[in-house]
Amino acid sequence: MSDIQTTKQLSGDMLSPSSQHSEIPLGTSEDNSASSTNNNDLSPWNLSNIQKLNVGELYSEQTKSLRPWTEFFHTNQFKKPASIKAAGRRLLLNVEHFRTNYIIVAVILSIYCVITSPALLFVLLAMGAGCYLVTLKNRESQLSIMGRQIPTSQQYIAVMGLCVPLLLMVGAGSAIFWILGASVFVILLHALFHQTPNQEAFGVQMEEA
Q1: What ranges do the domains of the chain cover?
Q2: Can you tell me where the transmembrane regions are (predicted)?
């Protein structure tokens, strides 16, 4: 009788699940959500990271890199490059050296293109006025449609979206191509023929004729 009880006890122990071999969960939902949140925070294009960009620091950096216009338009510095290799090096160094000046040149060409196109100027002013009215409206109370509040950013997008057909009608596409073409032409012409100042500061020795 005792042998039968011992056999049943041993069989019961073999069939019962061992606590040592219990499954360990690989990760809880909280851990997964926390890890996904950390991954999103590390993304450089995350919305919160974009909002943290300091516009003042960016403006200050560009202002410091602005070169004197007397240096930019110095006629004695314009010279034909000695070779194609020297032209390529000069182009890269000048774009780095005068990058802020080139940005200003592109902006000036853009303003010139808009001013000489009254219809385009009128549509852009209307779009700016619409965005300004949206700003004033949201200072008092946020716009709501059928009980749903519309974010200010979506209101701006709506105003710009309404102006897109008008911009196409007044030739905004051709104006953009003109601005790009004129900017690239002027920048390439200046960067190729303007001798690079302070070549030693860049650590590059260029062969100039």
Answers
A1: 61-117+173-199, 118-170
A2: 102-135, 156-189
